[in-house]
Automatic annotation (TrEMBL):
Keyword field contains Coiled coil: yes
Family named by the database record: Belongs to the class-I pyridoxal-phosphate-dependent aminotransferase family.
Record note on quaternary structure: Homodimer.
GO MF term set: pyridoxal phosphate binding; transaminase activity
Coiled coil stretches, renumbered: 160-187
Organism: Thermococcus gammatolerans (strain DSM 15229 / JCM 11827 / EJ3)
Protein name from the UniProt record: Multiple substrate aminotransferase
Cofactor(s) the protein needs: pyridoxal 5'-phosphate
UniProt keyword annotations, A-Z: Aminotransferase, Coiled coil, Pyridoxal phosphate, Transferase
Listed InterPro entries: Aminotransferase_I/II_large (IPR004839), Class-I_PLP-dep_aminotransf (IPR050859), PyrdxlP-dep_Trfase (IPR015424), PyrdxlP-dep_Trfase_major (IPR015421), PyrdxlP-dep_Trfase_small (IPR015422)
Domain Aminotransferase class I/classII large as annotated: residue spans: 44-405
Length: 416
């Protein structure tokens, strides 16, 4: 460490904590990120992260487009942009959503954001008062919980099965909440190839969810980063497809179909909601990175996106298959897992009594890492689950990782 910095840290003249806001004092680092730091530096096979494979990044196309953008559009690409985003990109996305999902859309219903993660924060800012009920899947996307948590909602968790959120249980819960006089602001769902479970909400449940939203007057936040990554089965339209009132706030992202490094995503919602989120975003970052937006525009407009998606699918399908085969081959009796038709994750449930957070150290000692499931539950009340990623490492490594994990679980089972 630099001598001067060493001296400064050693003396610690400031009472650092006293300067932080109460909310900042409550913030905790994401467990996954802390964990990944640990694994990055060792020989451990990591099935933990949620990263796309860098081999899928369309580097040559990006090089070509970036050159063109700098030659032809430097004035726009290197200048501040509007908060809503680069208009040609918003138009191109509106057309793409219409073509791909049959959702009639205009550019006024689209705002470009710095990844859908930013949209989750903006949704918190714009919709959540402290104490408002926000309904989430159990389990759900960890960083959505963290984004919303800042705005102090009351989370209500709805269990999941192989067809997504249990809408029958949701209905019961809505009735209970109504009797208690509580207002539900929105239901948050990762409807297709969910993170962390990999499961997809059935068509029937999607339609029922819309009906319930009308009946009980709440919004639906549909976070959809994975539906394009389908390796088997038939596509199901997004919930947004069935939205005739503007109740669905849809989040899309370039992270899994282009490159996460661009930090670009989009919100598609009623113009009234877009307008408020636009005002909120002004205070956050003025606008999403214009250089990236102009590149993304050409990527969509010139058809590269449609050409590239099948390549990503072909790259990931064998990895998904390798993981499912290895689970079948190595896992002991009593262990269950999901069989996703797409996305990036498999969810594993171990017999009751095994705490996957406690088991982690032993797994790492055996040379494999996963994400313990507990953090994906708003109420942290489930201990025996874990998430595996199959997109980042090659097939043979996946196989070896699952084998090591199965050995770890077998040893734990002997103790239970
Ligand atoms: C369900 C879900 N929502 C949002 C995100 C954030 O994605 P982005 O890179 O668009 O911010 C992720 C990333 O893994 C995710 O899994």
């Amino acid at each position: 460490m630099h001598k001067k910095l060493e001296k400064k840290l050693a003396s610690e003249p400031l009472n650092f904590e006293s300067f932080f806001s109460e909310k900042a004092l409550q913030m905790k680092a994401s467990e996954i990120r802390e964990l990944l730091k640990l694994v990055e530096t060792s020989d451990v096979i990591s099935l933990a992260g949620g990263l796309p494979a860098p081999e899928t990044f369309p580097v040559d196309v990006i090089k070509k487009i970036a050159q063109e953008v700098l030659t032809e559009h430097a004035d726009k690409a290197l200048q501040y942009g509007t908060t809503k985003g680069f208009t040609p990109l918003r138009l191109a996305l509106a057309r793409w959503m219409e073509k791909r999902y049959g959702i009639p859309m205009s550019k006024v219903e689209i705002m470009i954001v710095a990844g859908s993660q930013q949209a989750l924060d903006l949704i918190g800012r714009v919709f959540i008062n402290p104490g408002d009920v926000v309904i989430v899947e159990a389990p759900t996307y960890l960083a959505a919980l963290n984004a919303f948590k800042y705005y102090e909602p009351e989370f209500v968790s709805i269990p999941m099965d192989h067809d997504g959120m249990r809408i029958d249980i949701l209905e019961e819960k809505l009735e209970e909440l109504k009797k208690e006089g509580k207002r539900v602001k929105f239901v948050y769902t990762v409807s297709t190839f969910q993170n962390p479970m990999g499961v997809t909400m059935s068509l029937e449940r999607r339609k029922k969810l819309i009906e319930l939203a009308k009946e009980y007057d709440f919004l639906i936040v549909e976070d959809n980063p994975y539906s394009e990554l389908r390796y088997s089965g038939e596509p199901i339209p997004p919930i947004k497809h069935y939205d005739d009132e503007g109740r669905v706030i849809y989040l899309g992202t370039f992270s899994k179909i282009f490159a996460p490094g661009f930090r670009l995503g989009w919100v598609s919602a009623h113009p009234h909601f877009i307008r408020k989120m636009e005002i909120a975003k002004q205070a956050v970052d003025l606008c999403a990175n214009p250089f990236g937006q102009v590149i993304a525009w050409k990527y969509v407009e010139e058809g590269h996106l449609d050409e590239h998606i099948p390549k990503i699918i072909e790259f990931y399908r064998p990895r998904r298959d390798a993981m499912l085969e290895a689970l079948e081959e190595f896992m002991p009796d009593g262990v269950e897992w999901t069989r996703p038709d797409g996305g990036m994750f498999v969810w594993v449930t171990l017999p009751e009594g095994i705490d996957t957070k406690l088991m982690m150290e032993k797994a790492v000692a055996k040379g494999v890492a996963y994400v313990p499931g507990e953090a994906f539950f708003a109420h942290r009340d489930v201990k025996n689950t874990l998430r595996l990623n199959f997109t980042y490492v090659p097939e043979d490594t996946i196989r070896e990782g699952v084998k090591r994990l199965a050995e770890t679980i077998e040893e734990e089972l002997r103790k239970v």
